[in-house]
Design a protein that fits this description.
The complex is a heterodimer of chains A (372) and B (246). By secondary structure, chain A is an alpha/beta fold. Chain A has two domains: 47-169, D-Maltodextrin-Binding Protein, domain 2; 177-368, no CATH class. Helices cover 60% and strands 9% of the residues of chain A. Chain A is built from 13 helices and six strands. Chain A has a six-stranded mixed beta sheet, with helices on both faces. Chain A is elongated. In chain B, helix 3 crosses helix 4 and helix 5 packs parallel to helix 6 (167-183). Chain B is 38% helix and 24% strand. By secondary structure, chain B is an alpha/beta fold. The chains are: A alpha/beta (372), B alpha/beta (246). The interface between A and B is medium-sized, with 27 and 32 residues. The structure holds adenosine-5'-diphosphate (ADP) and magnesium ion. Magnesium ion binds next to helix 1 of chain B. Adenosine-5'-diphosphate (ADP) binds next to strand 2 and helix 1 of chain B.
Amino acid sequence: MNKITNHQLYRLIIAHFAEIIREPAVIFWGVVFPILMAWGLGIAFTKKGDVNIKLSLVKVITEQDSVHETKLAGYLATNGNKKDSTYTIDLKNEKLGNVNLTFYETSWLNAYTMLKKGKVSLIIEDKATDTKYHFDPANAEAKTAYQLVANLASYGSAFYGVNQSGIVPLTMTGTRYVDFLIPGLLAMGIMMACSWGISYTIIDRRSKKLLRRMVATPMKKSNFLLALITARFTMNVAEALLLFVFAWLYFGTKVQGSWPALMVLFLAGNIAFSGISILISSHTANPEIGNGIINALVTPMMVVSGVFFSYHNFPDWTIPVIRYLPLTMIADGFRSIFNEGAGFADVWLEALVLTSIGTVSFIIGLKIFKWY
Amino acid sequence: MTDLEYIVDVRHVKKSFKDVHAVKGVNLTIKPGEFLALLGPNGAGKTTLVEMIEGIQHPDEGEIFIAGKQWKNHQHELHQMIGLSLQETRFMDKLTAWETMRLFASFYKLDTVRVDEVFQLIGLEEKKKAYVNNLSGGQRQRLALGVALLNKPKILLLDEPTTGLDPNARREIWNILLDLKKGQKTSLILTSHYMEEAEFLCDRIVIMDQGNILVEGTLQEILTLGGGHHSLDELFISLTGRHLYE
Ligand SMILES: Nc1ncnc2c1ncn2[C@@H]1O[C@H](COP(=O)(O)OP(=O)(O)O)[C@@H](O)[C@H]1O
Ligand SMILES: [Mg+2]
């Protein structure tokens, strides 16, 4: 009669868990997608393949010019390969990675079309006497292209190959892009799983009047929420482990710091986002509004919290704000444990703040929670 | 407790949503074992009234006694005593009928013995392992009814349990309820659009419109009271100028 399997908390956890694992979309977004993302981005930024840069070359020859060839085109014609109206030239450097430059000789009009379509990032106005470069200096790729072509025009292709001994490529674990990425993805996984898995579930059940039906029984309300969080947390642990094991096997990702500290921070992150998820789903019964609320919470943090790239490129005044966003605290903490050998001493404050955010949100959420 | 005259006693209950007066001062009593039908068109206030009795909504004015107790200080006891199905509840799609029933059974500290009993009662044994979203409308309503019956409630409140069902599926539900009536241990409040349902199942009929009770009594009483009408629909037209079910 009093078997644990008849207990309401147990049955609620089982029910929530069954719902999670029986939904193929949940498995895809929670398990497969993060691994695909780690794999795709990890490869894209790690592989030493050749870089291809494409440019538009507009020749401007005036009648006063004594020669019949422009400056850069003349160089390319003798030193590169020409095919139809396309010149190619390869810059070689084993350490830096090779660069293949492709110049499309074309009209002004067409050059601008190519620029607008993103096919090229730089237009070269090539004359007999000098060469002008049209590009957006704020575009890093265009800037690189400019520097390469300008050097090429002045010094020839050999400039790129010099000083190879002075370059030391970082391939050590902890310094590659994947080492930056994996902790970020783990942090993002917590946020996404809680906000969709908890908030959306609550809103959906409210809209289907299931919450109302459940609280019209002797069910304890706290058990319902506790079970939802527990089932979600169990799933989050599994998702994180799978991603980690993949990264470990495929990229050789290692935790250089303290495992217990990592676990505590993981738990604190889950508490933070579980609490926030309860808070944001405490009122609405409309899944579309819920969708909007969740996106409004999640999207800004995805962009600014440095999951995929460092937030240090944002303006200085934003950094203090960004640093204390929940997702940033988790991602930064994970990174320092993974890559810098950090331990409790380095992340206890973050863990404490995250736990407090979660607890306060949970309490407020519960106060204003609408069961009907 | 058994010597109480009324198992449900609703006194001068009012409820408004902003400027909509959903229930405008209703009095209603139900005797132990009595089956009562609450008829009325959409928007009459049936759901609001029933949900106030269920403790889900709270009256703006007036009082509700269930077995002599009020919701505000006897929540736990009253939850044990009532069983209900809401208008249009959807259970979790990816749980089986069995898992759904076990989940609700756990809220009442009931074990699988009772769950099995209820499946037999609602004739859904062969669907125990089916996911809720693979059940037909009628099967879902029977599941909802089963959930309502788990705790052997003294008072059963069913909000439009047969709306949208075909005649066969409706029959199945009626038969379950008729069996329950024979047991004489349960009072029923059932809301409906269907006059046949009220005639077939219930001892007493209450007709509501626009938040008020228009007439109440046995079928015979209200038909003669209305001046010898042949059907409830005819009576309703003569009272309001509209059809009961549109
Ligand atoms: N939560 C609510 N907010 C606003 N109006 C409501 C709400 N619930 C019911 N109403 C209104 O109260 C009236 C009675 O509704 P209801 O009790 O659902 O009637 P019935 O169940 O008889 O169809 C309707 O006019 C309905 O629109
Ligand atoms: Mg209704």
